[in-house]
Design goal:
This protein is an alpha/beta fold. The chain has two domains: about 170 residues, Rossmann fold; about 80 residues, no CATH class. Helix content is about 35%, strand content about 25%. It has ten helices and ten strands. It has a six-stranded mixed sheet with strand order 6-7-8-3-9-10, sandwiched between helices. Helix 6 packs across helix 7 and helix 7 packs parallel to helix 8. It is globular. It starts with a strand and ends with a helix. Bound molecules: adenosine-5'-triphosphate and magnesium ion.
Length: about 260
């Protein structure tokens, strides 16, 4: 899977240029981090990539096919291969449903998909959810719980399980650990890293926290006011040529 973003702009109004002429490329199995301060356009980029929001200028293609195509059938095809994890798992899980039902939503939407972890046939729907819970390090017996009976970190694991269920080729994570405390953040980042190694999916990881980005990603893009001000491989993070804004982020995170 390759993701190519070329000259992408998204203007909400004359004065709000959320994205301004953005270009980057992610190869299959890579993890790319998007870092930038509040309001820099990170979530806008995520929503556009998910096909949740339109874009006018520029081009986004996955495996050579455009995102947010005009035809519904193509959009559906696209949505099968891209999943998203949001900052706040609480708002994405229906509080009235036991978690096994929430986990199965994507598979219910795309009945034609049989993920590889379901090679064993004859599993009940609940058992499928249990398999998925195990993949993200939760106990099977949790399937009957409701979101209100889980911790923040457990809820985020559930939303990761749900996103992984249809084996996306691209996983977009928008501040997935921002609402969690530090030790749980690290656990979730480790989990994402391990899952990526196993599945070879491409991850676009959005965060205002450059430490989280450098832990998970081998490539980093720095966004500021809707523009990419810096773009580098992890090995180049301390190079002199880094943009002053990148340097200030590194300094503020005290990872110098
Ligand atoms: N639906 C919208 N209508 C108008 N302007 C919007 C809309 N959504 C976002 N914006 C504006 O676009 C810019 C980028 O917003 P965005 O949410 O992408 O930032 P962000 O980098 O995700 O910030 P944060 O770190 O706070 O989540 C901001 O100036 C914001 O006010
Ligand atoms: Mg955001």
């Amino acid at each position: 899977m390759s993701l190519v973003v070329d000259g992408l702009s998204k203007h909400y109004s004359k004065s709000v240029h959320a994205l301004d002429n953005i270009s980057f490329r992610v190869n299959a199995g890579e993890c790319i981090g998007i870092v930038g301060e509040s309001g820099s356009g990170k979530s806008t980029l995520a929503r556009v990539l998910l096909g949740l929001e339109s874009y006018k200028d520029g081009r986004i293609t996955i495996n050579g096919k455009p995102i947010a195509p005009k035809k519904r059938a193509l959009l559906r095809e696209y949505r099968k291969s891209v999943q998203m994890i949001f900052q706040d798992a609480t708002s994405t899980l229906n509080p009235k449903l036991p978690i096994w039902k929430s986990i199965l939503e994507p598979l219910d939407n795309f009945k034609e998909i049989t993920p590889s972890f379901l090679q064993a046939e004859g599993l009940s729907r609940k058992e499928v959810a249990e398999e998925l819970l195990e993949i993200v390090g939760l106990e099977k017996k949790m399937v009957d719980r409701y979101p209100g009976e889980l911790s923040g970190g457990q809820k985020q694991r559930v939303s990761i399980a749900r996103a992984l269920s249809i084996e996306p080729t691209l996983l977009v994570c928008d501040e997935p650990t921002a609402s969690l405390d530090v030790t749980v953040q690290v656990q979730i980042l480790r989990l994402l890293k391990a899952l990526q190694k196993k599945t070879n999916m491409t991850i676009l990881f959005i965060s205002h926290d450059i430490r989280a980005v450098t832990f998970l990603c081998e490539k980093v893009i720095v966004l500021k006011n809707g523009s990419i001000v810096d773009q580098f491989g992890l090995e180049g993070i301390y190079h002199e040529e880094r943009h002053p804004y990148t340097k200030s982020l590194i300094k503020a995170a005290s990872i110098e």
